[in-house]
């Protein structure tokens, strides 16, 4: 499917409404066409012919035409505007739904500012096209063609003289359209760059301030701002070349009228009334010519925006949904990794990972930074697909599950805590918005968050800022844990979830997790041995490989990496281990 076909699919629904709009525009053009003709009759019949009794009815008709034109203009604009809003609403909705379906790889590749630009600036170019450009171009083509037809009926030689501008106008239109399209693409890219920069700077405002880099960022902003300005000026430079050509062609028509028309009237080959009528039609020829350059711009802006939006929309996610998905509303939580490897950007991220977890067990994952700990749980949630081997949950390859069912059974407190600008209650109840307040409080208690939340001035109704601004790192982690717990998942993933809380709080949370009243497999990724030492099995990762695997006791006996870390973190216990 091409971008234009995709766009037309949205427009199709409104074709009847737009057709009526076009009919009204046609009536409007016909009414506009009649006015000069009536003027001709007034000149030839009333003024020169002396039939004054026709004056009042003819003026009456002129007034009637003004009313018809007003009604048609108003109604057609309503029809086109409502169509454009309808098209835009459906398109925004469809693109947004697709964005929600996109995978991690897509969001890694695409910048937030670009995606925002698609949903705002590019959408607006489409709205402008449907609401205004389509009918304006149609109306002006209509004026041009009908005015030429009328001039032909009035005086053929005069009309033929005027037609000579047509090939030149067509050629200029073609050349402008061709050269301005890449320039507008550059403008849209530059706009995306500027958008991305501003968005990142606002989000990362605290870092900018902490490093006192305002001046540096200002310079960087100036660069982006310059790029955008240059792109817009570059586009303007191109289309500006063509505007005088169209302007010139419209003057040529006026000169032809004065010169050829004047001579003809003097020679008696044309009446004065005919000259007045042709003069009345002249604006119908000159206005479209003068405005042609602008409309070509609008059309090119529109096509560039449709192409950009369609590019985003048609991006195929790497994570494919199975054709016949296994539907399991409630999973048990048995997890098996069989010879799993994961490669990305020609790098081995995980190599030959094997382990088996029974439902209800707790698994600790520890290892150096960048060892691949988070990648293990990412593969389990199908945020990425294993390059080799199989990731099984309850004996079924995760690739075969209905993705929604699979993820609905996994509660995740991610390393990078994200909170929405909503109340604390809303953030905790995100996975189950209809849950009772008592349940929200219960999970908050388990995550040791209830106490500090109640101490906030508005308690659970406190609105947390964007990304949880206003809360400490440990508080955000506890809210994120409560949010994951509320789902009552079969598998709970805690990725570095208690790194920012003190040992006492961590120990309290661990006790609470032991008391979860449903069978729940727990994956704990941590740097602190204290976070995972009670796990049923511990995976020690280094450079994408499991280098040690066992319980806390077994790993201490091995006296390898795990034991070394333990000795570092618990020097007082190190002697006991040695004994
Ligand atoms: N989809 C991907 N594309 C490219 N690189 C990836 C991808 N997934 C993971 N990586 C890389 O793989 C390595 C392991 O990442 P991962 O997040 O699993 O490490 P980690 O052990 O959880 O690290 P940390 O403890 O620092 O969070 C990192 O270098 C990361 O950049």
Mean pLDDT: 88
Order of strands across the biggest sheet?
6-7-8-3-9-10
For the secondary structure, the number of strands is 10
| Terminal CA distance | 72 Å
What is the CATH class designation of the largest domain?
Mainly Alpha
Percent strand equals 5-15%
Instruction: Report low-confidence residues grouped into runs of 5 or more.
Output: none
State the helical fraction: 55-70%
Categorize the overall geometry: elongated
Domain ABC transporter: 335-568
Protein name: ABC transporter ATP-binding protein
Main location: membrane
Organism: Jutongia hominis
Helix and strand layout, with pairings?
Layout: H1 3-11, H2 15-48, H3 55-101, H4 104-109, H5 112-154, H6 156-163, H7 165-203, H8 205-210, H9 214-267, H10 272-313, E1 335-344, E2 347-357, E3 362-367, H11 373-380, E4 388-393, E5 396-397, H12 403-408, E6 410-413, H13 424-428, H14 437-446, H15 450-455, H16 473-486, E7 491-495, H17 503-514, E8 521-525, H18 529-532, E9 537-542, E10 545-550, H19 552-558, H20 561-569, H21 571-578
Bound molecules: adenosine-5'-triphosphate (ATP).
Adenosine-5'-triphosphate binds next to helix 11.
Keywords: ATP-binding, Membrane, Nucleotide-binding, Transmembrane, Transmembrane helix
Subcellular location: Cell membrane
Domain ABC transmembrane type-1: 19-301
């Amino acid at each position: 499917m091409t971008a234009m076909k995709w766009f037309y699919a949205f427009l199709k629904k409104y074709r009847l409404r737009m057709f009526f709009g076009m009919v009204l525009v046609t009536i409007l053009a016909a009414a506009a066409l009649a006015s000069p003709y009536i003027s001709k009759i007034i000149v030839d019949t009333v003024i020169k012919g002396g039939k004054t009794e026709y004056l009042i009815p003819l003026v009456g008709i002129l007034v009637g035409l003004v009313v018809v034109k007003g009604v048609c203009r108003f109604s057609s604009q309503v029809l086109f505007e409502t169509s454009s809003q309808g098209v835009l609403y459906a398109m925004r909705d469809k693109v947004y739904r697709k964005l929600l379906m996109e995978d991690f790889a897509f969001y890694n590749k695409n910048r937030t500012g670009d995606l925002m630009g698609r949903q705002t600036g590019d959408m607006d170019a489409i709205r402008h096209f449907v609401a205004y450009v389509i009918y304006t171009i149609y109306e002006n083509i209509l004026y041009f063609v009908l005015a030429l037809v009328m001039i032909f009926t009035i005086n053929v030689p005069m009309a033929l003289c005027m037609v000579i501008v047509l090939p030149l106008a067509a050629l200029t239109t073609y050349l402008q359209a061709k050269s301005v399209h890449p320039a507008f693409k550059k403008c849209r890219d530059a706009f995306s760059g500027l958008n991305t920069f501003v968005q990142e700077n606002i989000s990362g405002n605290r870092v900018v301030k902490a490093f006192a880099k305002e001046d540096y960022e200002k310079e960087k902003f100036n660069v982006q701002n310059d790029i955008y300005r240059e792109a817009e000026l570059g586009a303007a430079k191109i289309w500006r070349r063509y505007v005088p050509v169209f302007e010139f062609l419209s003057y040529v028509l006026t000169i032809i009228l004065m010169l050829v028309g004047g001579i003809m009237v003097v020679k008696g080959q044309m009446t004065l009334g005919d000259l007045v009528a042709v003069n009345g039609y002249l604006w119908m020829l000159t206005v479209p010519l003068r405005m042609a350059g602008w409309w070509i711009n609008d059309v090119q802006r529109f096509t560039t925006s449709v192409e950009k939006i369609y590019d985003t929309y048609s991006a195929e996610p790497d994570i494919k949904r199975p054709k016949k998905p296994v539907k399991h509303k409630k999973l048990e939580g048995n997890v098996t990794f069989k010879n799993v490897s994961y490669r990305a950007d020609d790098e081995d991220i995980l190599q030959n990972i094997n382990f088996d977890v029974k439902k209800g067990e707790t698994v600790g994952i520890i290892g150096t930074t960048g060892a691949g700990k988070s990648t293990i749980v990412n593969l389990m949630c199908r945020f990425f697909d294993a390059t080799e081997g199989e990731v099984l949950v309850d004996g079924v390859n995760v690739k075969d599950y209905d993705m929604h069912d699979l993820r609905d059974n996994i509660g995740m407190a991610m390393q990078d805590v994200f909170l929405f600008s909503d109340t604390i209650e809303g953030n905790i109840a995100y996975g189950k918005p209809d849950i009772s307040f008592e349940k929200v409080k219960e999970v908050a208690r388990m995550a040791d968050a209830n106490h500090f939340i109640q101490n906030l001035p508005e308690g659970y109704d406190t609105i947390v800022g964007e990304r949880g601004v206003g809360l400490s790192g440990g508080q955000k982690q506890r809210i994120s844990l409560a949010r994951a717990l509320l789902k009552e998942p079969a598998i709970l993933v805690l990725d570095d979830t208690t790194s920012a809380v003190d040992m006492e709080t961590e120990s309290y949370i661990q006790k609470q997790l032991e008391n979860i009243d449903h069978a729940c497999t727990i994956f704990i990724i941590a740097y602190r041995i204290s976070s995972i030492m009670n796990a049923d099995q511990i995976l020690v990762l280094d450079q994408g490989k499991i280098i040690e695997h066992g319980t806390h006791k077994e790993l201490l006996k091995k006296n390898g990496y795990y034991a070394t870390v333990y000795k570092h973190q618990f020097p007082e216990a190190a002697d006991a281990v040695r004994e």
